[in-house]
Amino acid sequence: MKKIEFLNFQKPYSYFGNELNSIHKDHKGKIKVAFVYPDLYDIGMSSLGYKILYHMLNDIEDVVAERVFHPLEDMEEYLRKNNIPLFTIESHTPLKEFDIIAFSVQTVLDYTNILNILDLAQIPMHSRDRKYPLVFMGGTTAYNPEPMHEFIDFFALGEGENEIKKVIDIFRQWNGKDKKHFLNLVSRVQGIYVPSHFDVEYLNNATIKKIIPLSDEKKVIKDVVPDINRSYFPLKPIVPFGRTAMDKANVELFRGCTRGCRFCQAGMVYRPVREKTVERLKYEMEEILKNTGYEEITLLSLSSSDYSHLDEIIDISEEISKKYHVSISVPSLRIDKFPEKLGRMIVSQRVHTITFAIEAATERLRNVINKTINEKDIFQTVEKAVKLGFHTLKFYFMIGLPTETEEDVKAIPNLVKRIYAHGQKFKTFKKPLSIHLSINPFMPQPNTVFQWEPFDSLENLKRKSSIIKNELNSKRYKVNFGFFEMNKLETALGRGNRKLSKVIETAFRNGAKMDGWTESFDLNVWMKAFEDNELDINNFTGKIPENAVLPWDHLSCGVSKRYLKWEKQKALKESTTNDCRNGICNGCGITDFFVCPVLEVNKHKKTD
Question: Which of 40, 212, 388, 538 could tie 343 with a disulfide, CB 3.0–4.6 Å?
Answer without folding.
Answer: 388
